[in-house]
Amino acid sequence: MVERMSTGLDQLDRDLSGGLPHGSIILIMGDKKTGVEQLADYIMLEGLRNDESGIFMALDKAPSKFKINAEYYGWDLNTYEESDHLMFVDGYSWQAGESETDHYLTGLTDLNEISMKFIRAMHDLKGDPDRSIVNSASALLEYMNGQSAKKLIKVMGAKAAKSEGILLVTLHKSLHDDQDIAQIKDAADGVIRLETKGQQPYIGVERMKKTDHAKSWRKFMISSKNGLWII
Predict the structure, then answer these.
(1) How far is CA 19 from the centre of its chain?
(2) What distance in Å separates the CA atoms of residue 1 and residue 107, rounded to the nearest whole number?
(3) pTM higher than 0.70 for the full model?
(4) What is the per-residue pLDDT for 7?
(5) What phi and psi values does residue 147 have, to the nearest 5 degrees?
(6) What CA–CA distances, in Å, run from 152 to 39, 79, 112, 127?
(7) What is the reported pLDDT for 186?
(8) Residue 209 sits in a domain of what CATH number?
(9) Residue 52 in contact with residue 131, Cβ under 8 Å?
């Protein structure tokens, strides 16, 4: 029987036959403003609320910006960071010659540095990393080709999988060509897609390892008052 992690979204869990398979790399892919970042945050938060731990590799913006964005939806990441259940790796602030966290990158071209900083953050966590985020693969693709990004994601995913954890990777697909998208998708064990039809975001599971998943597209709703839900 496949062990699974709840996403915190009942309908998505049902569509995934109970949740995300342990030890998986999950790509959350969509255009900007479809809720890609919010979905990844929410899945991680579901684990943190249940005494799990995780690493947040912040590449698109500084960790403080991610925390402010989460607060908009009523999600307090500071509490989990203070208790060492959540560890940020700052892969953004190097551009200004500074860092907001103890774990930080000096750029996004050295695959060895990025993977080693991920591993060091794992060692400083309270417990093993159950759910971790790379936000985003789009930032990696600004500084490396798709094949290198794929290799890096698979290395970090393998480290997370040692403790049966999952690695959530976000990608803003409109920023990339089909070849780079294919490389990132190839690194993943499962792909969840977000797309906008008219003004309405929809969510669907493209594929998921060891899972008889639903093939339906469902409305994906986001609000500062009610958070996330699927209908």
Answers:
(1) 15
(2) 41
(3) yes
(4) 98
(5) -65, -40
(6) 22, 29, 9, 23
(7) 98
(8) 3.40.50.300
(9) yes
How many CB atoms are located within 10 Å of the residue 64 CB? 16
DSSP string, 117-158: HHHHHHHHSSS--SEEEEE-HHHHHTTS-HHHHHHHHHHHHH
Name the CA dihedral angle for 160, 64, 59, 88, rounded to a multiple of 10 degrees. -20
Query: Which residues in the chain come in under a pLDDT of 70?
Result: none
Number of domains in the chain: 1
Q: How far is the C-alpha of 41 from the C-alpha of 218, rounded, in Å?
A: 19
What are residue 203's DSSP bridge partners?
Answer: 194, 218
Structure tokens at 51: 């005494």
Task: Mark out the alpha helices in the chain (DSSP H runs).
Answer: 10-15, 36-48, 63-72, 78-82, 111-124, 137-141, 146-161, 178-187
Beta pairing class for 200-208 and 190-197: antiparallel
Instruction: Output the CA angle 205-207-211, nearest 5 degrees.
Output: 95
Position 226 scores a pLDDT of 84
Q: Give the pairing of strands 218-223 and 200-208.
A: antiparallel
User: pLDDT digits over 24-53, tens only?
Assistant: 999 999 998 899 999 999 999 999 999 999
The parent domain of residue 217 ranges over 4-230
Contact of 188 with 170, CB cutoff 8 Å: no
Whole-number pLDDT of residue 32 = 84
